[in-house]
Design goal:
globular; 6-stranded parallel sheet; about 400 residues; Rossmann fold
Length: about 400
C-alpha cells in the first residue's frame, strides 16, 4: 500500500497515536483513523478512555470508549502503556492532551466550534500543528494573539468529522430504518450542550412532552455524552418517553443524526455550527444562566453577535415549541442566507477536510522520516519537527 511514494519498502511505519477522554473526541479523528488503519506505511494506535475521577485521580476506561468504534484490541494502549512509548505523531481533539513518553509532532484537531469559543484559550497554545476548523476560529485565535495568522503551526484543514454530511457517504433511508421511523413525519433532533444549566436541565423535558403530545414529529434525543452535571442519568430519566416516535439514543457520533434530521433543536452546543452545513432550520432553547456564566468566565470569548443564534429561532418558553418548530419547517428558507454565510465562515474544506489532512500528513511524514530512528528526548516533542507550513495543504 505504498501508494507510489517511492519510499524504501523496508522502512519502519510511521507511528501515530490518538488520545482523548470522550467518544466525541475520537469521532473527530475517526475519518483519518480509517485511512491510517488501511495504509501499511502507518502504525496507528489509540489511548485514553472515558474519564472519571476516583479519590482525586483521573481514571480512563479504554474499553468503554473504544468498544463502540470497533477498534481492534491490539490497537488500544492504556495511558500507562503510552507513558513508556514513543510516537511520531500524536493527534488529539481535547485541549489538555493525554501524551505519551515522547512524541515528535503534536497535532490539535479540535472537537468543534461554537459561539462560546471554548477552544480559544491559552491552554491550547502548546501543540506543534493546528488543524484549524475555519476562518472564524482562525480570527478568534489571532485576535487573542494565542495563534497569530502567520504562525507556521496553523493549517486551514477544516473539520473531518463533518465530511460525511456532504460527501454522499450517508443514506437517509438506511438511517430512517435504523431508528425505526417510517419517513412520513419530519425528524426533529434535540441535542443540548453538556454545560451546567443546559436546556435539558431547565426546560428540555417540558419541550419533549409538548413535541410528543403534538403527535406530529419523529424525535431523536441525543443527551450529551459527558455532561458537567453527572447527578442525572438522562438515559434512565427520559426512558419512559420512548416509543415508536421518540428515541433517546446513546450514539456518540452526532453526524448521522444531523444528516437525518429535518430540524435541529439545541441551546449552546457546537452542533448548531455543524448543522449549518446542511442549511436546514434550527430552533434554540434559551439558556440565560449558562450564557451568563460563560460571559463571566475568565478570558470569555462568548460571541452571540457574529453568528450565535441568528441562524434559527429562539424559544424562551416550552409552550412555544410546537408552534415554533412547525413554522420553521413550513418556512425552511427563513434564515437560509445566514446559515450559508455562517457555514462558509466556520469551515474550511467543507466535505473534504479528511483529504486535506491526509495530503498534509503524507507530505509532512516524508520530511520527518530521516530522523525517525533517532533517539527521542523526553519533553522535546516538536523541536525536531519540520515546519508545518512548508507542506502544501
Amino acid at each position: 500500500m505504498s501508494g507510489g511514494t517511492g519510499e524504501n519498502s523496508g522502512a519502519s511505519p510511521t507511528r501515530v497515536l490518538f488520545t482523548g477522554y470522550a467518544g466525541v473526541h475520537f469521532a473527530c479523528f475517526k475519518p483519518l483513523y480509517e485511512k491510517l488503519r488501511d495504509d501499511e506505511r502507518f502504525d496507528v494506535f489509540v489511548s485514553g478512555g472515558l474519564r472519571s475521577k476516583v479519590d482525586g485521580v483521573h481514571q480512563y476506561d479504554l474499553h468503554g470508549m473504544y468498544d463502540q468504534f470497533d477498534i481492534p484490541a491490539d490497537r488500544r494502549l492504556t495511558v500507562e502503556q503510552i507513558r513508556g512509548e514513543s510516537f511520531d505523531y500524536l493527534f488529539a481533539s481535547n485541549t489538555k492532551m493525554i501524551a505519551p513518553m515522547d512524541v515528535r509532532v503534536r497535532v490539535q484537531i479540535f472537537h468543534g466550534v461554537s459561539f462560546r469559543n471554548k477552544a480559544v484559550r491559552e491552554a491550547n497554545a502548546h501543540a506543534d500543528v493546528y488543524f484549524l476548523i475555519g476562518p472564524y476560529m482562525q480570527r478568534a485565535f489571532s485576535t487573542t494573539e494565542i495563534l497569530r495568522e502567520d504562525d507556521p503551526r496553523v493549517l486551514p484543514i477544516g473539520f473531518m468529522k463533518t465530511d460525511r454530511m456532504l460527501n454522499g457517504q450517508l443514506d437517509r433511508t438506511e438511517l430512517l430504518n435504523l431508528y425505526g421511523f417510517m419517513g412520513d413525519r419530519p425528524v426533529v433532533l434535540y441535542a443540548p450542550t453538556g454545560q451546567k444549566h443546559n436546556s435539558l436541565e431547565t426546560m428540555g423535558e417540558a419541550v419533549l412532552r409538548s413535541l410528543k403530545e403534538s403527535d406530529r414529529f419523529d424525535i431523536i434525543v441525543k443527551a450529551h455524552d459527558h455532561p458537567k452535571n453527572k447527578s442525572i442519568d438522562w438515559f434512565v430519566r427520559l426512558g419512559p418517553m420512548e416509543d415508536e416516535h421518540l428515541c433517546v439514543t446513546r450514539d456518540v457520533d452526532v453526524i448521522p443524526l444531523l444528516f437525518l434530521a429535518d430540524l435541529l433543536i439545541t441551546d449552546a452546543s457546537s452542533v448548531s455550527s455543524e448543522y449549518s452545513l446542511l442549511d436546514r432550520p434550527m430552533v434554540f432553547l434559551d439558556v440565560p444562566k449558562l450564557l451568563a456564566k460563560a460571559r463571566r468566565g475568565v478570558g470569555s470569548m462568548l460571541d452571540l453577535e457574529t453568528w450565535g443564534r441568528r441562524c434559527g429561532d429562539l424559544v424562551t418558553d416550552p409552550a412555544e415549541i410546537v408552534t415554533t418548530v412547525s413554522e420553521a419547517l413550513e418556512e425552511p428558507q427563513r434564515h437560509a442566507s445566514i446559515r450559508r454565510a455562517m457555514a462558509e465562515d466556520l469551515f474550511f474544506n467543507r466535505g473534504s477536510a479528511t483529504e486535506s489532512a491526509w495530503r498534509w500528513l503524507n507530505e509532512h511524514r516524508v520530511q520527518l522520516r530521516p530522523a525517525a530512528h533517532a533517539a527521542h528526548a523526553v519533553g522535546d516533542a516538536g523541536s525536531r519537527a519540520p515546519d508545518a507550513s512548508a507542506v502544501p495543504t
